[in-house]
Amino acid sequence: MDPSSPLSAEELLGLLRRRWQASYDLQLVQRRGRLYLQVMWAYLEQQSFPLSAEAYAAKLEELTGLLNGLGVAGQVRAWLETTSDKPRLGRALGLALELPPERASEFFL
């Protein structure tokens, strides 16, 4: 797959499941002028997961739209394919996104 091609929600879900055999929750977090993609410790297959399968799918659709719009789909894809870490209870994994300068200025006010 071309690293610069857009990321779909289906591909993102497949990357999560291949890497960790679970559909982990994902969040975009802004901290100290940086933007991070966080893989949280909660996942769809848990009984206590707060979202339905439909709400989780909608969240992934929205997230992939943001990631593609920010121009970081390739970074996310490469990281999820290669990271050796695993989310643990109370500890999310974080990818510091390298935004193109023209996109960073739009995102951070």
Descriptive account of the structure:
The structure is a single chain. The chain contains four helices and three strands. The chain has about 110 residues and is of the alpha+beta class. It has one domain: Protein of unknown function DUF3067 (HIT family, subunit A). A three-stranded antiparallel beta sheet has the order 1-2-3. Helix 1 crosses helix 2. The longest helix is centred in the middle third of the chain and has 18 residues.
Secondary structure blueprint with pairings:
Layout: H1 9-20, E1 24-31, E2 34-43, H2 53-70, H3 73-82, E3 93-96, H4 101-107
Summary tags:
109 residues, alpha+beta, HIT family, subunit A, three-stranded antiparallel beta sheet, globular
